[in-house]
Specification:
mainly alpha, 2 domains, two-stranded antiparallel sheet, 7 helices, 2 strands, elongated
Length: about 140
């Protein structure tokens, strides 16, 4: 792939924790410039290709790929959403003041799994993307 030994080491270290600055430091880049080096390296096509190849190898060896992760997250959601009756010390289902059965479910796990699935599907964005060309057109021409 045409990578120097230090870049190969960066790729190996990056796969450990996906932390670019830490990987750059461990690969021998200066402490002071590690973040900038990591940013530059992660944008290099040869480094990106090496990361894709390495991840594919890990996926092939472990049998863990995106489909496996999505299936596991769906299972977590389904299991976490199952209602479980809240029982008294005598093993009877608790009821609220209106006589309805009290149930519990694992909301925290369900929410986290749903968040991860939503991100995988691109449902949540951290920034608003605007069509800059339309904005410029409106400013330059006063609208239509």
């Amino acid at each position: 792939m045409g990578l120097t030994d230090r870049k190969k080491r960066f790729v190996e270290e990056y796969l450990v924790d996906m932390n670019g600055a830490a990987a750059a430091r461990r690969a021998g880049y200066s402490e002071k410039g590690a973040s900038q080096a990591a940013s530059r390296l992660l944008h290099e096509p040869a480094v990106q290709a090496a990361l894709v190849e390495a991840r594919a190898g890990v996926s092939a060896r472990t049998g863990v790929d995106a489909e496996y992760v999505v299936r596991a997250l769906v299972e977590i959601v389904e299991r976490s959403m199952q209602r479980v009756p809240v029982l008294t010390a005598r093993g009877e289902q608790m009821v609220d003041e209106e006589g309805r059965g009290v149930w519990r479910f694992d909301a925290r796990s369900a929410n986290k799994a749903l968040e991860l699935l939503g991100r995988h599907l691109g449902m949540f964005t951290d920034r608003i993307e605007a069509d800059v060309r339309e904005s410029v057109k409106v400013v330059l021409f006063g609208g239509e």
